[in-house]
């Protein structure tokens, strides 16, 4: 059967004579009856009643436990109690003793804490106890089992419970607890295995597990999650769980001892067959001459290895303690088996290319991950060189995250291995360690493999756990399966890419449009802008319809201000520039939102309307367009309509209605008339003059001037023009006539009326003025006379009443040349100065002020302003001359000063000269007539008069108007 | 771990057909590419649900080698279900089925449910036994048939669960004597760890009563 064996390794080192023969010396000639180990001791009992406790440093404590012999002993694993069964006196029942190894007497022997005589006289064969010291069982040669419950270290009189008799001597027992507080007792006899449930106090039901049994020492309990009770048979090792048979390991040889250490099963067996195939370990060859060769085999149950074999004479027991195994022979020789460290075990495994085992082993022993990765890599390399690429990839996948992917990828770049590479890359993506390049590579692999399904699957599952660069993926997919690329793009909102693929690879323009329509406004605007050219080229109609829809949403949604996100018609105009009709149609779609249009949009719209208009031959349609444009101009908010632009457009298209409208709208009548005239539309020009002449008389002049220069100008209209010019005296007659003379096509007939009326008017003026001259001459004559009189003749003061109080004049009195007389006291009371007549002072003062203020108007600007405003600048300037306003101001001041100086001479009561020296009366009259009221200097003076202090006016309350002495003069 | 029933399975068939791999795939969900000869009998367990009832499957994976036959035979006895496995890429494993079947029928209880499994269905290129042949054999011998792949885990779960279903139906039909553990069926522990399972236990009792 040897070839049907597990793999062999040597994971243990043997140390013969571990105790330097100490044990054999102590034992001497006695026979070892029982051994045990645990809690830091090896326990050896002999037939002399002695117990030997051996510490790690092989210090031996020997004490007498029984007078006669020790039969059985068991050391609790993790507590300091040792249980023994032995005989004190021959022919009496055996005695069970419990020793506390911590407590020692004076001879430093352990103290016996319990000593109980067994209830049966039959020979006890097996003994076992639980570590918690609550359960203990003794098996007898007749098949009886005595079960002790309760603290076994207390000497109590509790009677043991006798379990069901098995009729055969008990060969092995073990307590097991699979579930907490559920205790089972496995029991083996030579021909059966059974289990007692010893949890409950009263009944201990038995379950028969098998009808095969084992010898003494040939059973062992493996504790742990799947706890097994194992028995060794000649053909195999059988395992049992509490309720059934478990696995079975075929190991040949007559078993002597079964033991468990860590995760190893230790089998001591006699080779029955003399062929001895198993005895191959070199260290055993020297014992080959022995009659009975006993070998010890260590099995790694988990990994299914034989991890150690050695042949040793007369093995008595195998004791696990202090982290290694001790083998005791009947002669008291102790050998130690030391497990090799993991690294050396792994090295062995690597040599044999058992990487998977290495991994399992490393994992079991909590090997660090970096080292594990290294194992995976080595394993992968190994499989790779063996040609098992898929296997290799499987290993490499386990290195993801630690090992540089390029290491692996390089190995699989050959197209033969593409499938493996794909697997690796897929895993790489799944783990989230993939870069862009990996994505590209993976997609290329998929396309090379033509595995569209897998690709699709990959794409679909993306969301959950696979991370990759979507853009790259789409790019790669595009080349091989646009279908998938589209799916990807759609799934990951790469709208622009989606459209790109549709357009560039599939030429599905309408589909693309439909797709865009589904997107949010912002997205669709973005996308459409990107590809609008393509759309226009291929599906203009649909595109326009689409754009209409898109743009109207931006209007209707109301958030026009978010100009970057919403669709503005402006943004798409450039697409339609070549096709004005289309553009017009497009824009007209938004006519309802005209008030929201921007200036440029409006301009463009008008421009293209004009283009359409120009190209339109149908007169009816032309007028519709005309009306439309004018309507827009009329209805439109001035703010958004750039009339200047529109005008330029209209000009360039010779679109008369708009030109006219705009000129009118802008009140640029001159231009309008120029325009009309340039079109030789004279009657329209005249109409315009008529219409706007009242506000802008210059229009007439304009027309007149043109008429003079333009030979085509119909002379018939001249009459009206001339009439108008004359009426509003727009041009001097002299100028008009000169122009008329220059004109070549004016017939006298057309201007006769004008001339007649002109001359008639002239004549009238002439006569009027002549009259005036006469009148003024007379006036000045009078004044001259008065002055003469004043200078040369005596003046008789005839005033009888005081001009102030109106009472009879009495002396002393004051008389003025102005014929006002006052009581002296009245004069003194009222007069402001001694020289002036109180009655005349206000008036004189006024005149003086006028003279003074006139002198102050030195401001050129005022003059210019006045010049601008007046129709008769000539008279204005002459007036200025008359007032000496253009003289040097200093001379004027001098004059005034001179004049002032002369006044004191006239201190005596006489007429104040200035009163007479006022400017000629004619001048102010003239001014009132010609100068606008607001600029009349006299008016201003009226205001000044108002400021005159009324309280001081003696005339105000006392006299009614009729009696006012000044009334006449006023 | 509480369960309503415990079913014992046995996996038999020629060596190398993938018995251990099937078990490993079913219990550990992994695949072992190297052929580790089974030396003796391996053991695995898993909890499954049949009609919402938790059922524990205890599975013995036997060695296919002729030399171990005497040992493995002893395991037939307590099994309620058997997976008889052949390798679709090796005709001899198919040819040996009759011997296996006789052996099984002889050493097991008569009610044992046997599922015929053509394993390694992933190796289509190397196929030597047609699916139809397997079906025909199963029909002829009253077995359930299925092709599986322990490598890809294809149908593995189904193979084990369908067998369990079959057994469960037989229990419902009263074919099995569930109180005799030699049949490879055991009723779950009445005193399970969770209180909630007590009414479940009652249900089972009543279910048994009607059968
Ligand atoms: N391709 C493929 N290989 C498989 C499959 N199942 C098992 N194998 C391989 O077949 C070989 C034998 O598998 P095992 O499960 O160990 O065979 P077994 O039936 O247990 O053999 P014994 O233990 O000797 O009875 C191993 O190398 C497995 O890798 C499968 O479904 N597909
Ligand atoms: Mg196997």
Automatic annotation (TrEMBL), chain A:
Domain RING-type: 802-841
Cellular component aspect of the GO annotation: HOPS complex; late endosome membrane; lysosome
Subcellular location: Late endosome membrane; Lysosome
Coiled-coil intervals, chain numbering: 766-793
Stretch list, region Disordered: 933-970
Membrane topology, record value: Peripheral membrane protein
CHCR repeats: 396-544
InterPro entries named among the record's database cross-references: CHCR_PEP5_VPS11 (IPR057308), Clathrin_H-chain/VPS_repeat (IPR000547), PEP5_VPS11_N (IPR057307), VPS11 (IPR016528), VPS11_C (IPR024763), WD40/YVTN_repeat-like_dom_sf (IPR015943), WD40_repeat_dom_sf (IPR036322), Znf_RING (IPR001841)
Database matches in SUPFAM superfamilies: RING/U-box, WD40 repeat-like
One of the GO biological process terms: vacuole organization
Residue ranges, compositional bias (Basic and acidic residues): 945-963
Keywords attached to this entry: Coiled coil, Lysosome, Membrane, Metal-binding, Protein transport, Transport, Zinc, Zinc-finger
Single GO MF descriptor: protein-macromolecule adaptor activity
Protein family according to the UniProt entry: Belongs to the VPS11 family.
Name of the protein described by the UniProt record: Vacuolar protein sorting-associated protein 11 homolog
UniProtKB/TrEMBL annotation, chain B:
Keywords of the record: ER-Golgi transport, Golgi apparatus, GTP-binding, Hydrolase, Lipoprotein, Membrane, Nucleotide-binding, Prenylation, Protein transport, Transport
UniProt cross-references to InterPro entries, sorted A to Z: P-loop_NTPase (IPR027417), Rab_GTPases_membrane_traffic (IPR050209), Small_GTP-bd (IPR005225), Small_GTPase (IPR001806)
MF-aspect GO terms: GTP binding; GTPase activity
Compartment(s) where it occurs, according to its Swiss-Prot or TrEMBL record: Endomembrane system; Golgi apparatus
Membrane topology of this protein: Lipid-anchor
UniProt record, GO biological process: protein transport; vesicle-mediated transport
Parts forming coiled coils: none
Compositionally biased tracts (Polar residues): 190-211
PANTHER family linked: DRAB11-RELATED (PTHR47979)
Record-given protein name: Small GTP-binding protein domain,P-loop containing nucleoside triphosphate hydrolase,Small GTPase
């Amino acid at each position: 059967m040897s070839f049907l064996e597990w793999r062999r390794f040597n994971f243990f080192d043997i140390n013969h004579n571990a105790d330097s023969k100490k044990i054999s010396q102590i034992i001497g000639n006695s026979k070892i009856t029982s051994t045990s180990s645990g809690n830091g001791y090896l326990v050896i009992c002999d037939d002399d009643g002695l117990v030997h406790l051996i510490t790690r440093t092989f210090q031996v404590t020997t004490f007498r436990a029984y007078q006669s012999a020790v039969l059985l002993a068991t050391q609790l694993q993790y507590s300091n109690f040792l249980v023994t069964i032995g005989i004190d006196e021959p022919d009496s029942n055996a005695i069970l003793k419990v020793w506390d190894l911590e407590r020692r007497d004076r001879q430093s022997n352990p103290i016996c804490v319990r000593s109980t005589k067994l209830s049966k006289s039959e020979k006890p064969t097996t003994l076992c106890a639980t570590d918690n010291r609550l359960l203990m069982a003794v098996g007898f040669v007749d098949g009886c089992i005595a079960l002790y419950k309760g603290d076994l270290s207390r000497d109590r009189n509790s009677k043991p419970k006798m379990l069901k008799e098995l009729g055969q001597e008990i060969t092995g027992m073990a307590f097991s607890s699979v579930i907490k507080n559920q205790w089972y007792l496995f029991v083996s006899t030579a021909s059966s295995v059974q289990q007692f449930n010893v949890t409950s106090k009263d009944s201990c039901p038995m379950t028969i597990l098998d009808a095969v049994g084992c010898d003494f020492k040939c059973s062992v309990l493996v504790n742990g999650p799947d706890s097994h009770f194992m028995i060794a048979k000649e053909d195999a090792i059988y395992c049992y769980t509490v309720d059934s048979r478990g696995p079975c390991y075929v190991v040949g040889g007559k078993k002597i001892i079964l033991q468990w250490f860590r995760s190893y099963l230790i089998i001591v067996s006699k080779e029955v067959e003399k062929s001895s195939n198993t005895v191959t370990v070199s260290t055993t060859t020297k014992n080959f001459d022995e009659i009975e060769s006993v070998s010890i085999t260590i099995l790694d149950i988990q990994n299914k290895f034989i991890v150690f074999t050695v042949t040793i004479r007369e093995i008595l027991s195998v004791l696990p303690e202090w982290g290694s195994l001790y083998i005791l022979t009947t002669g008291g020789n102790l050998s130690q088996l030391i497990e090799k460290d993991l690294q050396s075990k792994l090295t062995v495994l690597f040599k044999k290319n058992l990487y998977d085992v290495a991994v399992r082993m490393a994992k079991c022993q909590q090997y660090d991950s970096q080292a594990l990765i290294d194992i995976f890599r080595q394993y992968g390399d190994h499989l790779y060189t063996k040609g098992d690429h898929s296997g290799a990839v499987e290993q490499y996948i386990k290195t993801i995250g630690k090992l540089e992917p390029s290491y692996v990828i390089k190995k699989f770049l050959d197209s033969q291995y593409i499938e493996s590479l794909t697997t690796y890359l897929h895993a790489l993506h799944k783990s989230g360690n993939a870069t862009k390049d990996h994505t590209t590579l993976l997609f290329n692999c998929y396309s090379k493999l033509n595995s569209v399904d897998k690709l699709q699957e990959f794409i679909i599952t993306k969301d959950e756990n696979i991370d990759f660069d979507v853009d790259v993926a789409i790019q790669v997919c595009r080349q091989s399966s646009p279908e998938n690329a589209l799916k990807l793009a759609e799934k990951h909102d790469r709208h622009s890419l989606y459209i790109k693929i549709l357009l560039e690879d599939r030429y599905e323009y309408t589909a693309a449009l439909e797709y865009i329509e589904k997107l949010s406004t912002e997205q669709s605007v973005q996308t459409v802008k990107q590809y609008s050219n393509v759309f226009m080229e291929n599906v203009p109609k649909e595109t326009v319809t689409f754009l209409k829809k898109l743009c109207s949403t931006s209007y209707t949604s109301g958030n026009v201000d978010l100009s970057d996100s919403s669709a503005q018609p402006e943004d798409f105009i450039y697409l339609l520039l070549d096709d004005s009709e289309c553009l017009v149609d497009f824009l007209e779609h938004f006519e309802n939102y005209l008030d929201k249009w921007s200036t440029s949009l409006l301009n463009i719209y008008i421009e293209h309307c004009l283009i359409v208009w120009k190209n339109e031959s149908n007169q009816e349609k032309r007028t519709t367009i005309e009306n439309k444009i004018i309507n827009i101009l009329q209805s439109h908010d001035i703010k958004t309509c750039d009339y200047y632009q529109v005008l330029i457009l209209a000009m360039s298209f010779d679109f008369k209605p708009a030109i006219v409208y705009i000129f009118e709208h802008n009140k640029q009548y001159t231009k309008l008339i120029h325009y009309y005239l340039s079109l030789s539309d004279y009657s329209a020009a005249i109409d315009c003059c008529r219409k706007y002449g009242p506000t802008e008389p210059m229009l007439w002049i304009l027309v007149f001037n043109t008429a003079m220069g333009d030979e085509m100008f119909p002379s018939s209209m001249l009459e009206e023009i001339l009439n108008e010019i004359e009426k509003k005296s727009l041009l001097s007659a002299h100028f008009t006539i000169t122009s008329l003379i220059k004109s070549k096509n004016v017939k006298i007939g057309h201007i006769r009326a004008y001339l007649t009326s002109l001359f008639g008017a002239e004549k009238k003026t002439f006569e009027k003025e002549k009259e005036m001259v006469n009148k003024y001459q007379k006036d000045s004559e009078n004044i001259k006379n008065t002055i003469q009189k004043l200078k040369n003749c005596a003046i008789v003061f005839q005033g009888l009443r005081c001009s102030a109080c109106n009472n009879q004049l009495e002396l002393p009195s004051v008389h003025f040349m102005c014929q006002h007389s006052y009581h002296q006291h009245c004069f003194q009371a009222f007069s402001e100065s001694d020289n002036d007549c109180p009655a005349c002072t206000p008036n004189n003062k006024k005149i003086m002020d006028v003279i003074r203020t006139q002198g102050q108007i030195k401001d050129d600007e005022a003059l210019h302003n006045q010049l601008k405003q007046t129709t008769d600048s000539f008279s204005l300037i002459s007036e200025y001359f008359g007032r000496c306003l253009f003289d040097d101001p200093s001379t004027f001041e001098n004059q005034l000063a001179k004049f002032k100086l002369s006044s004191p001479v006239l201190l005596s009561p006489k007429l104040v000269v200035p009163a007479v020296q006022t400017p000629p009366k004619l001048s102010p009259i003239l001014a009132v007539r010609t100068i606008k009221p607001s600029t009349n200097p006299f008016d201003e003076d009226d205001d000044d008069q108002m400021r005159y202090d009324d309280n001081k006016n003696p005339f105000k309350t006392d006299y009614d108007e009729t009696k006012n002495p000044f009334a006449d003069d006023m | 771990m509480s369960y309503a029933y415990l079913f014992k399975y046995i996996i038999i068939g020629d060596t190398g057909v993938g018995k251990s791999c099937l078990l490993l795939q079913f219990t550990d969900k992994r695949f072992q590419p190297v052929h580790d000869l089974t030396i003796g009998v391996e053991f695995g367990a898993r909890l499954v649900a049949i009609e919402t009832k938790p059922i524990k499957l205890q599975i013995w994976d036997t060695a296919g080698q002729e030399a171990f036959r005497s040992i493995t035979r002893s395991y037939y006895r307590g099994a309620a279900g058997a997976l008889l496995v052949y390798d679709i890429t090796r005709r001899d494993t198919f040819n040996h089925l009759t011997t296996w079947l006789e052996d099984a029928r002889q050493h097991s209880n008569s009610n044992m449910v046997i599922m015929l499994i053509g394993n390694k269905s992933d190796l289509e290129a190397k196929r030597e036994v047609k699916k139809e042949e397997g079906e025909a054999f199963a029909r002829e011998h009253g077995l359930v048939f299925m092709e599986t792949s322990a490598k890809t885990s294809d149908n593995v779960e189904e193979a084990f669960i369908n067998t369990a279903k079959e057994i469960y139906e037989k229990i419902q039909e009263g074919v099995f004597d569930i109180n005799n553990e030699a049949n490879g069926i055991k009723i779950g522990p009445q005193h399970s760890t969770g209180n909630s399972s007590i009414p479940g236990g009652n249900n089972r009792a009543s279910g048994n009563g009607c059968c």
